[in-house]
Structures are given as C-alpha cells and as structure tokens.
Amino acid sequence: MIPATFDYEVAESVDHAVELLGSGKDAKLLAGGHSLLPLMRLRLARPELLVDIGRLSDLSYVREDGDAIAIGALTRYRDLEQSDLLRAECPIVASMSGLVGDPQVRHRGTIGGSVAHTDPASDAPTVLLALDAELVVNGPGGERRLPVAESFGGFLQTALDPQEVLPEIRVPKTGDGGWAYEKFNRRAQDWATVAVAAVRMNGGAHVGLTNMGATALRAAGVEEALAGGVDPAAAAERAAEGTSPPSDHNASGEYREHLARVLTRRALEQALS
Ligand code: FAD
Asked: Of 83, 109, 251, 260, which one has the fewest beta carbons inside 10 Å?
C-alpha cells in the first residue's frame, strides 16, 4: 500500500530534530525506516511530518567511555556486528546484531530505532534489558538518562516523550564473562518466535525474554531462583512466569512458554559454563 501524505524535513543536528518535533504537527523521527515505513504503508501509522535523522552520521559510533561502551543510536546492526570493541567488551551486542533479519536489514536498521520502536519480537531491546543498558535522551528540557526498562511504554509504544530524541545507548563492559543469545525462528532471517538473552554480571545472571509479552521482559523468576542457589536447569523451569506470550501463525502461547524454558536452559548453560 501507499502511505498517507506527509511532510518531510531533514534534521541537521539532534537539537534541530527536537525543534522540528515541536512544530505542532504529529511528527515522527525517521532513522533506518525499516520499522516505521512498513507501518506507514499499512496505514497503521500516519504521521503528518517525518523528521529524517538518518543523515546524522555523528550519531553512528561505538566508543569506550569509562566503565561503559557508548553506542550512537544511528549505529546500524552491521557496524555493531563488526565492532572489535563490542566483540571484546560487550560481545552479546555484536552477536545479537548478526542475527537481526538479513544483510539488507542489518545495513539499514539502527539500534536506536529498534529501542524506540519497542517491538517485543525485536532482538536489541531484550539484550539491552538484560544488560541494564542506559539511554541518553535529548528533549526540549535538555538531556536526561534513563534505564532502558523505563523506555518501554507497551506494545509498539515508547515511553519517551513525543519531542524526545534518543542519541546514545550505554552498555556495561561485560568482557567475555559469560553470555548467550538463543534465538528460535522458523527461517534464519525471521524475527524471533522466542529468544532468550543471558548475561553473567553483578555476581549473578540477568535473563531477558523476546516475544513473551507486550515488550521485552526480564525473567524475574529465573533470576530469583539462581540467586537462591538453584541450578540453571531447575531455574529455567520458571522462565514463563509472569509472561503473556502471543498466539499467532508462528506458535501458540503455550508453545512459546515451552520454548522460553528450553532456550533459557540452553542460554544459562552457555553463559554460566
Ligand atoms: P525506524 O523504522 O526509522 O524507526 C522506528 C521507530 O523508532 C519510529 O517510531 C521512529 O520515530 C523511532 N526512532 C527511530 N530512531 C529514533 C531515535 N534515535 N530516537 C527516538 N526515536 C527514534 N528486527 C529485529 O530485531 N530482528 C529481526 O530479525 C528483524 N527482522 C527484520 C526483517 C525485515 C524484513 C525488516 C524490514 C525489519 C526487521 N527488523 C528486525 C526490524 C529492523 O531491525 C528495524 O530496522 C529496527 O527495529 C528499527 O530501526 P530503524 O532504524 O529502521 O527505525
């Protein structure tokens, strides 16, 4: 289908994008366009104004910043996958990026667009949630930082204000201290039917779930069981606790719960071995 008509502006900086978002029109940022444009073509989104931030090349980077790795929101999956710094200091982000879609998607899609789009089937939000990543957000009131968990508003809904831009994502340096991202899909280039991220950090294990509810989720029952000294296989049995997986043409909710338990066990065995 053809999208409804819209105005189009190119942002020259983050501040300019914030200003354009405040124009009074129903405006949306455009990054890689791989999630927004399909929604517009289906007329599930009908913004009056598209603010193109895709040319802000200074928002594409992976750099060391003290204890964290700073990732520009416009960094594309292909660059994340290839980043030597990420491979050494936070390998789960590089590995997850290599599992997103197909090469064309990985060359266009951005990590910031994925976080702001808040699709529960997307890979990046789950991995960032497991890592306790922090977002740097710019709006009319200046800059603020918030945990990625607080940026999820609901199914395909960000909790960022409509006039806010996400320029940077900060992840901890985990080194190769134990991690896994187990993604189950019917074809290699598909979204996850279910996926599980496990990271050994802060003296325990953090576990994130993809496509098990309205947003990416933490497997709180699993983390609690592990903290109580339960072995990984037994802890994984609690993976579906507190989740509400969808039933669709790929899998029933019940099958997704089964997958969550199996993938969590595999992810924990790898991350904690
Ligand atoms: P856009 O589509 O440009 O924007 C998405 C939303 O985020 C919009 O609402 C936009 O306004 C907002 N936004 C964008 N950037 C910012 C910012 N910096 N600050 C604030 N708001 C912002 N994803 C997966 O995770 N796994 C997959 O396996 C997968 N497979 C795919 C297969 C296909 C065929 C396609 C087309 C897409 C697939 N995707 C997959 C989604 C893809 O990764 C998207 O590109 C990504 O999720 C969104 O990034 P984008 O740069 O394209 O965002």
From this structure: 251
129, two tokens: 């949630």
According to CATH, the topology of domain 179-271 is Enolase-like; domain 1 (3.30.390)
Ligand 1 mean position, distance from CA 227 (Å):
34
Closest CA to 235 of 217, 199, 261: 261
The CATH number of 7-52, from 2.30.40.10, 3.30.43.10, 2.30.120.10, 3.40.50.300, is: 3.30.43.10
- Probe target for ligand 1 pocket from 16, 26, 35, 158, with the most ligand atoms within 8 Å of CB: 35
Q: Which fold has domain 60-172?
A: 3.30.465
Q: pLDDT 10s per residue in the chain (273 long)? A: 788 999 999 999 999 999 999 998 899 999 999 999 999 999 999 999 999 999 999 999 999 999 999 999 999 999 999 999 999 999 999 999 999 999 999 999 999 999 999 999 999 999 999 999 999 999 999 999 999 999 999 999 999 999 999 999 999 999 988 999 999 999 888 999 999 999 999 888 999 999 999 999 999 999 999 999 999 999 999 999 999 999 999 999 999 999 999 999 999 999 998
212: helix, strand or coil: coil
Instruction: Output the pTM of the full model.
Output: 0.97
